[in-house]
Amino acid sequence: MKKVLFVTAIALMVNFISAQERVNAALPVISPTAKGRIAEATGWLQNDSGEWLSRKNRIPVNFSGSEKILIDHEHYGLGENNENFIYLELRDVKINDSTYTMLIKKYKDGYYKYESINKGWIPQNSLIYYVFNTSELEKLKNLEADKNHVIKIKTIYSNTMPYLSANSSIKTIAQDLSKFISKDDKFGMEELVVYIKLYKDKVRFIAQSFDKYLEPDFNKSYYETTKQSFQSFIKL
Fold first, then answer.
1. I need a labelling partner for 90 at 20 to 30 A (CA). Which of 79, 102, 155, 171 fits?
2. Is 96 exposed, middle or buried (0-12, 13-18, 19+ CB in 10 A)?
3. Other CB atoms within 10 Å distance of the CB of residue 233
4. Which residues contact 66 (CB under 8 A, 6 or more apart)?
5. CB 190 within 8 A of CB 210
6. Whole-angstrom Cα distance, residue 166 to residue 91?
7. Residue 27 pLDDT level (bands cut at 50, 70, 90)
8. What are phi and psi for residue 45, nearest 5 degrees?
9. Is the pLDDT of residue 153 over 80?
10. How far apart are CA 35 and CA 56, in angstroms?
11. Angle at alpha carbon of residue 139, lines to 177 and 206, rounded to 5°
12. Which residues contact 81 (CB under 8 A, 6 or more apart)?
C-alpha cells in the first residue's frame, strides 16, 4: 500500500512540474500607438512618352497613349510593380528585453480567381513589416537638399503578410513576428531601402524592399508630399 501511495505521489509531482512548465512564449510587444505615420502622398511617374502621370498613394503604371485607359483597372490599379500604400507607420516593438523600431507598410493587393484568364478580380489588403535598430533612422537626418539619396536600413526581422483578414490587428503582426523569430530559416526577410530627395518645401520618397532588379528610376517615379507631412512619419 505504501508503495502504491509513493508511486502515486511521484506521478502527481511530475504532472504538476510539467504543468508549471507549460507557459506560452511571450509575444513581441508592439506599441499600441504609432510614433510616426503617413497616410497620403501623391505618386508621380513619367511614362515612356515623357508625360507625367499621378495618382494618390500609388506610383501609376507606365502606360501611354490608348493604354492609359487601363491605368486604374484591377491589378493595374496597384501601381507600377505594385507600388502603393494605404499607410506607412513607425512603432516601437519590444522583443525580449530590447526595444526596436518597426516600419509597417500596409498596401492594396489582390488576385484573380481565374488566374489563367485574368477574370474574377478579388481586391485584398496586405502588409510588410521591417524591424530594425532605432538608430538606423539617424541615416535620414541632415540630408543634403536637392539631391537623390538611397538610404539602406539594416533590418533584424521582416516579413510579408499577404491578404489580411478583416480581423487583423497589431496583435496579428506580433504573432507573425513571433513565429518568424522562432524560425532558424529567415527566408523571406527583406532589406529596407528609402529613396529620398528634399526638394524645396517638398519631400520625394519611396520606401520599399531592396531589389536590384526592381530599383526605381527615382528621377522619374516617386511619392511627393510636404516636408511637414513627411516629418509626421520620419523626422529629418
1. 79
2. exposed
3. 23
4. none
5. yes
6. 21
7. confident
8. -145, 135
9. yes
10. 23
11. 70
12. 59, 214, 216
What is the rounded distance in angstroms from the CA atom of residue 128 to the CA atom of residue 16? 42
Amino acid at the residue 26: A
pTM of the model as a whole = 0.87
Q: What is the dihedral angle through the alpha carbons of 137, 104, 60, 153, rounded to the nearest 10 degrees?
A: 30
Asked if 87 contacts 126 with a C-beta cutoff of 8 angstroms, the reply is: no
Q: What is the pLDDT at residue 22? A: 61
Helix, strand, coil percentages in the chain from 3-state DSSP, rounded to 5: 25, 40, 35
Amino acid identity, residue 171?
A: K
- What backbone phi and psi angles, to 5 degrees, belong to 168? -65, 145
Residues 190 and 194: their CA atoms lie apart, in Å, by 13
Residue pair 213/173 in contact by the 8 Å Cβ criterion: no
